Amino acid sequence: MTQPTVIPTEHLRTALDLAASRIPVMPLRVGKVPFANCRRCTDNACGGRPNMKTPGPCACPAPCHAWAAATTDPDVITSGLWRRAWLRASAVAYHPGGAGLTVVDLDNADAITWARENLPATQTVPTTRGEHWLYQGRMQSANAVRPGVDIKSSMAYARWLGFGTGAMTALPDAVRQLAVSKPPTIRPTPRTVTASAPAGGGGCPHRTPAYLERGIAMAEQRITEATSGVHATVYRTFLAVLSTHGRCGCLTDAHIGRLFTAAQGKGESPRHCTDAWDNARTALGL
Question: Considering only Cβ atoms within 10 Å of each terminal Cβ, which end of the chain, N or C, has fewer?
Fold first, then answer.
């Protein structure tokens, strides 16, 4: 039986070309963020692939779960649910770590100047505000390792902006050291964290302050009542809080400290809390 001819979108064509080069790809919607979880996977109720170091156990056929949904399988990329996503996509993203790559994301001119003075030259891709420097080799991802500098590799995604210029070089120790030596985004301790509220008193612009307080209290309760799979529960809870309030500007260190305190009360280390928080932010594109 003759199959009908289907003309792919530009993004789909790009995705298939990258997949053929063994670069795992995924669609991005408007705002350079991944497509939201489907109903079955809302708040990673399915188990959530970003909870794992490798994909699984979720086998959702939709492009759910941000970086963990990235694939090189052309049958998946052209499947019905993915094809509908490509029709609505604003860009193509890829999972650098899955391709054995690390992206040093330089967000401004000062960051670029620093990189030119401190890092070996490599393949360079211009971005809207700065440059992506691509190195051969994977490592842990890390945000804000320096002012205007993020590292995107394992468990992260980067927007595909073309091949750029220059020859790619091996991942240098200078880049690996950035993730090791970077100051933690949050320094959690099992006590109340004192922090001033942002402008507006920390209130949600789309909800009431009571809505935020209720959400934090419910998140604390969800963590405290976990009887198994504590690490996964902490991650899913952080993801749920960030998906609701991560773009509002209403979360303060006090709110985050309450969540970290609850997690540490269940045996999570400060490092695990920070990693879970950073991974949740990465999964949501924050």
Answer: N
